Amino acid sequence: MEQAKYEAIKPGVLRHSVVNWVFVTIGVYLIAIVLLVLGIVLQLTGTINNFLTAQNMLNIIDAVSMLGIVAVGMAFVTYSGHYADLSVPTTMALTGIVAVEMLKFGFVAAMLSAIVVGFVVGLINAVAIGKFRANPIIWTLAVNYMSMGVIRLVWVNKQIYPDMTASTVRASEMFDAIFRLRFFDKIALPMVMMIILVIVLQFVMRRTKFGVQLKMTGAARTPARFSGINVERMIAIAFIICALTATIGGLAVTSLNRVGAWYNGKGYEFKAVTAVVIGGVTLAGGRGSIIGVLGGVLVIGILNNILTLLGVGTFSQDMIRGAIFIIVVFVNARSLRKMGRDYE
Amino acid sequence: MSDRQRVVALNMKNVTKRFPGTIAVNQVDFDVFAAEVHALVGENGAGKSTLMKMLAGSYDDYEGEIFIGDQKINLHFPAIAKANGIQMIYQELSLAMPISIAENVLVGRLPVTKLGLLDKQKTVEDTKKALERVGLGHLDPFMAIEEISQHEAQLVEIAKALWNEPCILVMDEPTSALSREEVELLFEIIDRLRNEGLAIVYISHHLPEVFRIADRVTVLRDGKKIATKDVADVTRQEVVQMMVGKSIAEFYRHESHATNKESLRVENLTRFGFFHEVSFRAYEGEVLGLGGLSGAGRSELGRALVGLDEVDYGSVNLHGKPLKIKNMSAAMARGIAYLTENRKSEGLALRLTLRENVLVSLVPRHTKGGVYKQSLGTPKLHELIEELTIIPPDPERTMNNLSGGNQQKVLLAKWMAIEPRVLILDEPTRGVDIGAKTIIHESIERLAQAGHTIILISSDLPELVALSSRILIMRQGRLIREMAKEESSEEIVLLAANGEGV
């Protein structure tokens, strides 16, 4: 009789959760494949050229590798149930400009001070949001503005260049060259870093105590607390991871632009959240994976590439990305609602 | 009273309300006269709140007839109840905290000038008039609710209900947040309202209050009406007897497995405002019952013992060694765990799977060098699924696809998984069916038999009496009585919880 009872519980939910599971785990790569096929069809019909070449495929990954680095960190914040870290753009700019400034003490000092600054920004977010339960959106938005003010105040609204600040030519050259490093003449360092971060952070999310407890925290904060999980610490670590990946992204952007400036990192917060959400880490928290986020990043990369080859302008591309974000969030929210209500 | 002409204000004839699988209210007759306070009492789950919701117009599928005055009314929507002069005052306030008293009291009926603007003069007059009826004429109508005290807010709630000129006022545990003096003030107001001719339904399980304020009392049990009596004609013992009765949920009285090896010693534990100077000992193999009314501080004590809430002073010894309660994970590592009374909001991650929910308690134990090995918990998981007969026995099923009883079993499994030496269970069978209840009771007994210490917080008296080796009664934050298994009975526990010794 009990058996019959459970069969009767919401059969629709089960079917739906299977659909959702497929969508969440492999769905994003399906979308990537569909986009690839679309690109190939466009090339065969002669609408675009040079889509399906090894060089273009590499270009796609190259172009999104810095976004990928930032997005895999951002994913931890979303996973923890705190939507997004909107202070990412200025964290990138600030760590970059600090590194350029500190080149006068040498390359190593520049890198280390950038990491320290990134860590401090992450810690401020971690304490305010983890410990004092500040609203993550409002708080990180404010931190973004404040650090922007710091940059403009300290550097008097100027851009600074490595070859001007560095004490030695060697330090400046190293800073310029480091993220231009290519393995086998093809594979750029940011690409390698992205892949290493994906592997490491996927492991952290799935196989460590922190990852498992963060999942519970993101899925249901109060039950996590009542299970003996230090939810404040979990949330804090998530924000620190995000700030550190933003630091790496910021250094890469600064190095490649050969300039430390307040606008480095602009737009990365939205692109990263889009990749995270397309990748199946839902805004409700506790779902998705880093591998999925990589898929989300690739989808954005392929889409950008096709749109550029089609000659679609930057502003139109922004509009298209925004529309896709809204659609994905809508679909996610709908499927979550059908799964049943959550507390909190 | 009896020589006065009695006007029937409300008459419910043979009403029944079914929910899937249960009959919450079963052929009940209930009537209230004008100028009368009629108390409705019964244990948890007796049907009081269902009957009240029926009056509020929450159900459109009840059976039986409801008369207001001498007119038959179909109370199918809340608006119909309001239009017929029924006003409800719930345990939780329905006031909006940040806005003014005036806006709360006159909600939906704020006076406006010809231009459609707020008529401030009239607003003040109307609010003053409403507040004077509950003795709050001195309050500034434009103060926000959050600026006034809890008991004033409770009275504002009543003023708001009265402003709609009800003929029937239903009050659900209106005194739960009030101090003794404030309760007395409230009773004076209720007395006055009765003299003005209002029919008042007073729902409570605080018997002293019922005997202080009510003219008649109706006892419900398991959805049925047991009796309606003039308060003057019954004693408290008789009412308790009727409430408890020979319940259908009478359980087999478990034997005590208590040893004399002390496992937990609590001394003078205090959290100001919640519990004070609590001292007790618990022994291996013992099921130590903790009885009392809701709000007596039992859950707060349980939460404090595992470090979920802070403690102001006092000490706890676990197996002879002092337990420093910093946080819950430290308490868990020492072998003490707490099962929450709120399954859905505090107990389970409803979107996660059975496996994740059970094994979360084992994560610290199965982590080596930061790496968590989930597979280490699999044998334990299967063992628990089998022992508690969790249906369906599918570890990958998400929790919101399980029935309430099975969710509760999963919650218990989560804490059984770490084999705590002291397990605090807060309402471990709340809202579950009889099958799950029996299984949970058997597990509790097995744990005790194996030498674990169980602290059982329960408002389910038959359960408390049947399982406990010893029962402590808590009232208003203090332990007031201890009774051995032999001397405990549902009646004695209920009387003691109400502050009455025998």
How do the strands and helices of this protein lay out in sequence?
The complex is a heterodimer of chains A (344) and B (502).
Chain A: H1 2-7, H2 11-44, H3 54-79, H4 88-102, H5 107-131, H6 136-154, H7 162-165, H8 169-178, E1 182-183, E2 187-188, H9 189-207, H10 209-219, H11 221-225, H12 231-257, H13 268-278, H14 290-309, H15 314-339
Antiparallel strand pairs in A: 1-2
Helix pairs in contact in A: 2-14, 3-9, 3-12, 3-13, 3-14, 4-5, 4-6, 4-12, 5-6, 5-12, 9-10, 10-12, 13-14, 13-15
Chain B: E1 8-19, E2 22-33, E3 36-41, H1 48-55, E4 63-68, E5 71-72, H2 78-83, E6 86-89, H3 101-105, H4 120-132, H5 150-163, E7 168-172, H6 180-195, E8 199-203, H7 207-213, E9 216-221, E10 224-230, H8 236-244, E11 262-271, E12 275-283, E13 287-291, H9 298-305, E14 313-318, E15 321-322, H10 328-333, E16 336-339, H11 343-347, H12 354-359, E17 367-368, E18 371-372, H13 378-387, H14 404-416, E19 422-426, H15 434-449, E20 453-457, H16 461-467, E21 470-475, E22 478-484, H17 490-497
Parallel strand pairs in B: 3-8, 3-9, 6-7, 7-8, 13-20, 13-21, 16-19, 19-20
Antiparallel strand pairs in B: 1-2, 1-4, 4-5, 9-10, 11-12, 11-14, 14-15, 17-18, 21-22
The proportion of residues forming helix of chain A, as a percent range, comes to over 70%
Number of domains of chain A: 1
Task: Tell me the radius of gyration of chain B.
Answer: 25 Å
- Quaternary state reads heterodimer
Low-confidence stretches of chain A: 1-14, 340-344
Broad CATH class of the largest domain in chain B:
Alpha Beta
Plain-language structure description:
The complex is a heterodimer of chains A (344) and B (502). With 344 residues, chain A is mainly alpha-helical. Chain A has one domain (17-43, 59-339): ABC transporter involved in vitamin B12 uptake, BtuC (Orthogonal Bundle). Chain A contains 15 helices and 2 strands. Chain A has helices spanning 2-7, 11-44, 54-79, 88-102, 107-131, 136-154, 162-165, 169-178, 189-207, 209-219, 221-225, 231-257, 268-278, 290-309, 314-339, and strands at residues 182-183, 187-188. In chain A, helix 5 packs antiparallel against helix 12. Chain A is globular. By secondary structure, chain B is of the alpha/beta class. Chain B folds into 2 domains: 8-244, P-loop containing nucleotide triphosphate hydrolases (Rossmann fold), CATH 3.40.50.300; 262-497, Rossmann fold (3-Layer(aba) Sandwich). In chain B, 31% of the residues lie in helices and 25% in strands. Chain B contains 17 helices and 22 strands. The longest helix of chain B has 16 residues, at 180-195. The interface between A and B is large, with 39 and 39 residues.
